[in-house]
Design brief:
CATH topology of the largest domain: Nucleotidyltransferase, domain 5
Radius of gyration: 20 Å
Length: 299
């Protein structure tokens, strides 16, 4: 692709759709954001088209696009093949046709990892694990410079690994999953109804609330056990933690580091760097743009 041409990254979320225009070095040229409006009338599709059209008018040099969204991306990376219950009409929608622009499609967690590797906390690393800790727990993995997708695109769904085989099934049927042990979706249940968000739980724990401290300690212990297990499977050099729960800062990273000191299999003096994500809400758009740059810029 000619160096003067630009790449568009689009992050389609349930609440907002974000667009980022970058050059081949990752320098940001412009951005835009619209509400997704995931309603019964499929207004979200029009909102994505409007965002893309507005950015293309501002930047006619845009040559290719990458789009990330929740769900499983099709093997040919032209559409999302599976996303039940949300964004009606997304499944099977071929975005190159919809946008009239060569467009690669990728899962949003996979895109966030690529963004952090390209321009963020894991820059230029070849072996990376990323977890997004929010309402649920998403994830993605890169091994020897290659993003893992798997047979159906499920690779990286680390929130659905089992930490307790006798636990209750989570939303995909996994018993005692990591997502249910630390995700915001279960904080009310884990705290006996005292807290409705992890932010409130952490604030109470930091303030010295004994019960909150116990709940939060169990949550961090579960995360550490999951990371120690994943380190043994994937052997990353860096683990990037993003999402709202990762914004807890030292309240998360200090006890997590202490737990990993006990659990992590370390060879010699090696230890895996566990770092906060840097790109925030732009990670998915950066990663989608990078995927487009790599996949669609070849002659």
């Amino acid at each position: 692709m000619n160096a003067s041409r630009l790449i568009l990254g689009v992050d389609l979320g349930g609440t907002r759709v974000k667009g980022l225009v970058v050059d081949s070095a990752g320098r940001v040229c412009g951005e835009d954001m619209r509400l997704t409006d995931d309603g019964a009338d499929d207004a979200w599709q029009g909102n994505v088209r409007a965002l893309v059209s507005a950015l293309r008018r501002r930047f006619p040099e845009i040559a290719v696009a990458g789009l990330c969204a929740p769900g499983l991306a099709a093997r040919d990376e032209r559409s999302i093949m599976n996303l039940p219950g949300r964004l009606r009409g997304l499944e099977g929608l071929v975005w190159s046709d919809e946008l009239e622009l060569p467009t690669v499609v990728i899962n949003d967690a996979h895109a966030a990892l690529l963004g952090e590797v390209w321009q963020g906390a894991a820059r230029e690393a070849a072996n990376v694990l990323m977890l997004t800790l929010g309402t649920g727990v998403g994830g993605a993995a890169m091994v020897d410079g290659r993003l893992l997708r798997g047979n159906l695109g499920r690779a990286g769904h680390v929130g659905h690994i089992s930490l307790n085989p006798d636990g209750a099934p989570d939303i995909v049927g996994t018993p005692g999953s990591l997502e249910d042990m630390i995700g915001d979706c279960t904080v009310a249940e884990r705290s006996g109804g005292r807290f409705q968000s992890t932010r409130d739980l952490v604030a109470a724990a930091v303030a010295g609330d004994g019960e909150a401290m116990q709940v939060w300690a169990r949550s961090v212990h579960a995360l550490a056990a999951a990371l120690a297990s994943l380190i043994n499977v994937l052997d990353p050099q860096t683990i990037v933690l993003g999402g709202g729960i990762a914004a807890a800062g030292d309240a998360l990273f200090k006890p997590l580091a202490a737990a990993l000191d006990r659990m992590e299999w370390r060879v010699g003096s090696s230890r895996v760097a566990v770092v906060p994500a840097r790109l925030g809400a732009q990670a998915g758009a950066f990663g989608a743009a990078y995927r487009a740059l790599r996949n669609l810029s070849q002659p």
